[in-house]
Amino acid sequence: MLKDEVRTRSYMNAIVQNKHLFKDKVVLDVGCGTAILSMFAVKAGAKHVIGVDMSTIIFKAKEIVKVNRMEDKITLIQGKMEEIELPFPKVDIIISEWMGYFLLYESMLDTVLYARDKYLEKDGLIFPDKATIFVCGIEDGDYKDEKIGCKCHKPVFNANTCSQHLVWDNVYGFDYSPLKETALSEPLVDTVEVKAAVTDPASVITLDLYTCTTADLAFSIPFSLKCRRDDFVHALVAWFDIDFTACHKPIRFSTGPHTKYTHWKQTVFYIKEVLTVQQDEEITCNLVVKPNEKNRRDLDIEIDYKLETQDPNRQANGSCTYKMC
Amino acid sequence: MATLSKSDRLVTDNPPSDSESDDSRDDEGWKDVEEDEEETPEVISLLDDRVFPDVISMLAHCKEKHNFDFLAVRQKLQLDFHGCVKLVNFNFFCVHLTPLRQKPMLSANIPSVRQRVHEGLPVSENISLANIDDDAYLKPVLDDDAVIIGLFDLPELSVPGAIQPGQDGDNAALVNDLLKRNTELQEQLASVMLQHENYRAAVSKTLDARWGETGADDNAKIADDAAGKGKAKDGADEKEDESKYYWESYAGVDIHETMLKDTVRTDAYRDFIYNNKHLFAGKTVLDIGCGTGMYYFILRLPSLASPPITNNFKGILSMFCARAGAARVIAVDASDIILKARENIYRAGLVDTITTLHGKMEEVTLPVDQVDIIVSEWMGYCLLFEAMLPSVLYARDKYLAPGGLMVPSHTNMWVAPVSDPVWVSENGETFWADVYGFDMSAMAKGIYDEVRVLHWPGDKVCGTSSAFKMLDLYTTSAADLSFTAPYVSKLSQDVDALDGFLIWFDTFFSPTAPSAGQNKELDKHGVPDDAIATEWILDSHGKRDQDRVAFTTGPFGGAETHWKQGLLLCDPHLGEKKEGEKSKEDDGNATETKTQQKKKDEEVRGEITFSVAEDNARALVIKATWDAGKTQQSWALR
Q1: Range scoring the smallest mean pLDDT among B139-148, B297-306, B386-395, B579-588
Q2: Closest chain A residue by Cα to residue B267
Q3: Protein arginine N-methyltransferase domain spans which residues (chain A) (predicted)?
Q4: Which of A31, A280, B113, B160 is most buried, by CB atoms within 10 Å?
Q5: Which residue of A has its CA nearest to B203?
Q6: Would residue A189 count as lying in a domain?
Q7: Does residue B308 lie in a domain region?
Q8: pLDDT digit string (tens) for B462-473?
């Protein structure tokens, strides 16, 4: 987190620039890691901060808090939010950096929602409090060449997604190409250049952290992508924006292709066919996201797309399933 | 015709695999516990995504819908079986693959064909022999075995003016020969396809297993590894068992990175074994720790950090040996993984050749008294961390026949000084000293105490490389694995400070076992103590010598490997701490502890010590001395 400038700076500004909100408040830092957000909150005048993390990083955090002379202001607890007992029955503010790849993959949002329901005072604040997933269509072109250097975050086994993986066809004399068909595709976490975008971005879903429930983390939402130019569409790319609306001056940061690099990069979903689109045409899509039934950490994702045009040869209609695991 | 009946069997035996097909396996003593997939044989249309039960109806569809008459094209171009395969694959390339999957050399014809298909125009007139005249089209493109196998079912090609056997006395013998050869080739092809089919079944089953039974435990582990977020996660249970820990430590490697980098290793084993088939023909081979070598395959599979599937591709080194003509291969592995290797070996049809033994090398009883060759992929980080070498040496002493072959035969360890002030400022203690106004130095604790395993850029190495330990696996003993050895490096540039040392190793595969009394100097395949992998593989004319195989895990030019390199980061405070102690010494230089600048061509020399950590037998401790032994520091790899 600390080396991701966009992220850390946004959190810092959201907290430190809003001393009027933090002054004398009890703050809960969910998944506190090295406790940097907790320390920001102390700097912003919080009465007390409770940092909670499962990981043994909490021992480092304790050292850090002590070195920075904040041990009387920050209580660090190792454990699961669902199992631990807080020294305060209620908190005024919840701060958390919970977002995962594609916003929801391995995110801690459910833990934040649990903490909200159990500990947040009525009219308490959540930093951040809004998260929006965006999608646009991209032309692949040179992108695949970049992939040969392969900065893919995850193993990608569908040759569609990475030319490096053409290897499926001949693995030491054994042909593994059936895997390409058998396997569900895995989305690719990587950076996309904004010039690759063929369509306008569509905002697919906004999660309001004050009101949403864990049930809302599984959804099926239609959206449409308006094409900006005549081009081909090889893939859809998704990213998210994060809002701190409680701030005096609202703070937002984006993880999209149009802005500064973040460690979340973007998430690329290659589709089976290449769409040939013309300017102002619309691709109607539907995005289904749900936690895998067998393993709640994994995400099952389905994208339906449909291109209706006057030209029957360019019409396309398909459905792709992906799994982030 | 033999080929037809074989392909028929393939089609009828493999249908939506129900319990029937399992039974047939049981008959051969194979108990398959996982088989439960549902797979329908499908023939995907050459020109669109429709699916048919057989090739004939698919081709009828292509003819009717797309005006593409496969049989007519075949007739027109007089395609033999391979030609048909190419034609099929050409169509798949054209129609089914996105441009991403095309190799540039194949893509030239594709847009027009795809365009025509999309426009509903007939494509057959577009295809000429030249279009498909590329052996690349012999490689399967899609899940298309059903189509290609189905090609056997097509009516015979009528050959205009074909010479019938017996038509002409002189030609009859020749024609008979050709026909016989043709039949043989077709049989070979069918057998290869059968193997492929077996693999395919194994692979898809593996995936089913993966998706069907992902244990929460495995995923928790992956989750913990992922992103290093240091967040609250459901922790994976601590495993007490040592061997389990061993496998878990593999799971921690960034799997995708590893995937791309592991070809170096397996390629080396494959090249050596296949280039030296004469050495393996008829021999008895022992494959120790057959698990790890297969890691390569694992990495070709998706999301395989978890052992259940990881294990499913074990035994590659054994299989290489068997294919190279070994009479018998004995594969030994202590982990349960070998049970999976057994399955792979069965699938590959090598069950008669390869015997798997489940247990520690030191404890199992081999079915033979001696083996001719020992193959093992035992190397660990910094060569010796968690390496299986002691087991290999044990097996060598107990089982290797006189004159027997060790594969690999030698490893050489290297050290070089490094300097990269930018990296140090971004990763060292200065970064953590002020993070958004907070002192987070606690995060930097230990960075000078532990070996960091990473890819270090070759241009940040600031001096010559020094080979400090050659292990000749024919003579090395377990006691040799703790050692102190001198090194010397000449700086290639001025540096403000020595930031650390980089450690890596080269692995050599010599095809010649040392025979008693033979002068080592005369051995054409001898490996000198300062052998460099990238140079040793060249002959005296600087050309690649096919007999020699070697690879490096170093930072210079070679492909990256999953071993990366080991970085020993020098503690910049070392001088300060030692100041009092050092000032007692007479040498005037010792007092200038603050000045760490060094000039180009200056020599850095000292000793490297490898030893086992006192508190943890699994951990490796590396000590380096420099400045003529006046400065020393230790790092642990655990």
Answers
A1: B297-306
A2: A172
A3: 129-309
A4: A31
A5: A179
A6: yes
A7: yes
A8: 999 999 999 999
In sequence order, the β-bridge partners of residue B472 are B410
pLDDT of the residue at B196: 61
CATH label of the domain that carries residue B281: 3.40.50.150
Residue in B199, B222, B230 nearest the CB of A55: B230
% of chain A surpassing 90 pLDDT? 71
A6-61 residue pLDDT tens: 999 999 999 999 999 999 999 999 999 999 999 999 999 999 999 999 998 899 99
pTM over 0.80: no
Mean pLDDT lowest among A143-157, B30-44, B308-322: A143-157
Q: Is residue B233 part of a domain?
A: no
State yes or no: pLDDT of A161 exceeds 70: no
As for how many domains chain B has, the answer is 3
Residue A116 located in a structural domain = no
Beta-carbon separation of A182 and B255 below 8 A: no
Tokens 């292709």 correspond to what residue? A257
Could you tell me if B32 and B126 lie in one domain? Answer: yes
Considering the domain architecture, whether residues A141 and A290 belong to the same structural domain is answered as yes
Structure token pair of residue A231: 């081009």
B198, B225, B251 — which closes off a domain? B198
Give the model's pLDDT for residue B51: 74
Answer for the pair A185, A166: CB distance below 8 angstroms, yes or no.
no
The answer to whether the Cα torsion of B494, B498, B500, B506 is positive or negative is positive
Residue A280 is predicted with a pLDDT of 94
User: Could you say which of B184, B377, B535, B614 is catalytic?
Assistant: B377
| Ramachandran angles phi, psi of A253, nearest 5° | -135, 155
Chain A residues close to B98, C-beta within 8 Å: 160, 234, 270, 272-274
Q: What is the pLDDT of residue B93?
A: 60
Last residue within a domain, chosen from A80, A97, A114: A97
- B-chain residues within 8 Å CB-CB of A84? none
Q: Which chain A positions have a beta carbon within 8 Å of B234's beta carbon?
A: 54, 80
- Torsions phi, psi for A179 (to 5 deg): -55, -35
The verdict on ipTM greater than 0.90 is no
Mean pLDDT throughout B517-534?
A: 73
Q: Which amino acid is at A33?
A: G
Spatial CA neighbour of B382 closest among B180, B213, B182, B610: B610
Q: In this structure, are A301 and A157 located in the same domain?
A: yes
Stronger pLDDT, A226 or B11, i.e. the higher one:
A226
Q: Which domain holds residue B336?
A: 238-377
Can you tell me the distance from the alpha carbon of B135 to that of B416, in angstroms, rounded to the nearest whole number? 45
Q: Three-state SS for B102?
A: coil
Could you tell me if A149 and A283 lie in one domain?
yes
Neighbours of B599 (CB within 10 A): 9
The answer to whether A121 is a known catalytic residue is no
Domain count, chain A: 2
Handedness of CA B544, B545, B549, B553 (dihedral sign): negative
Q: Are residues A300 and A226 in the same domain?
A: yes
Tell me which residue in A111, A182, A186 faces B303 most closely, judged by beta carbons: A186
